[in-house]
TrEMBL record:
Keyword Oxidoreductase on entry: yes
Keyword list, A-Z: Oxidoreductase
Family indicated by similarity: Belongs to the short-chain dehydrogenases/reductases (SDR) family.
Family annotation (SUPFAM superfamilies): NAD(P)-binding Rossmann-fold domains
Organism this protein belongs to: Fibrella forsythiae
Pfam families: adh_short
Keyword Kinase appears in the UniProt entry: no
UniProt-recorded name of the protein: SDR family oxidoreductase
Lineage: Bacteria, Pseudomonadati, Bacteroidota, Cytophagia, Cytophagales
Length: 235
């Protein structure tokens, strides 16, 4: 139980990488506070967590919701040790086909959501003089592609946010890690999880194992950036 008594908040936990990570961390002894917008899927996750996962439905783009998530973690477990900003989604269109509403929605989830959950948890982490903030970004925080202007812009913004945050919180003993995944077989893709075209992609469980590795390094070690791809994907 290498994460015994650690309290971890994870967003976007109802499916995919977030769900797999919540389950793996709970299996390794952590107390997990899982949040996402889909209350029904969260409830199923809580059941599978067998008492180690507490769920709070909420929207990462809502300051009120993220304040409630942090309050619930503190009320239930007494502290916060790790925050995993995993919530995110994409819209993939040429620039002139992207609506203003689509732009605002993706930025609200991917960028504002990362900011709001991190901000809500920071006072607790600073006060205890330790902690770990993880942002699940994407390899497209490092590259661009046609039709990806909105999604890549949101991921580049996350990258810049992490870079500045890392410098701000290191004096408080807080680690910041960016996780950059390549193609993952999940509901994120238009053809859905388990489609024939994605059989050689990373699995959500692969990303969960990556997260477990990052979070269980010795206290003096921080993995600033962790890039992972399926062998079949060029980078």
């Amino acid at each position: 139980m290498i994460l015994d008594k650690k309290t971890i908040i994870i967003s976007g936990a109802s499916r995919g990488i977030g769900r797999a990570t919540a389950l793996l961390l709970a299996q390794n002894g952590a107390n997990v506070l899982a949040t996402a917008r889909n209350a029904e899927e969260l409830s199923a996750l809580e059941t599978e967590g067998r008492g180690k996962i507490v769920v709070v439905p909420g929207d990462v783009a809502s300051e009120t919701d993220m304040a409630l998530v942090v309050k619930t973690a503190l009320d239930r477990f007494g502290t916060i040790d790790i925050v995993i900003n995993n919530a995110g989604y994409g819209v993939f269109k040429n620039v002139d086909d992207i609506s203003v509403d689509e732009w605002d929605s993706v930025m609200a989830t991917n960028v504002k959501g990362t900011f709001l959950l991190t901000k809500a948890a920071l006072p607790t982490l600073k006060a205890k003089g330790s902690g770990h903030i993880v942002v699940v970004a994407s390899d497209v925080a490092k590259r661009t592609f046609a039709g990806g202007s909105l999604y890549t812009a949101s991921k580049y913004a996350q990258e810049a946010f992490m870079g500045a945050l890392r410098k701000e919180v290191r004096p408080f003993g807080i680690k910041v890690s960016g996780v950059y995944s390549g193609l993952v077989d999940s509901h994120f893709h238009a053809k859905g999880h388990g489609h024939e075209t994605s059989k050689n992609y990373l699995q959500s469980e692969d990303m969960a194992e990556s997260m477990l590795f990052i979070l269980t390094r010795p206290a003096h070690v921080v993995i600033d950036e962790f890039m992972v791809h399926p062998l079949t994907q060029e980078y």
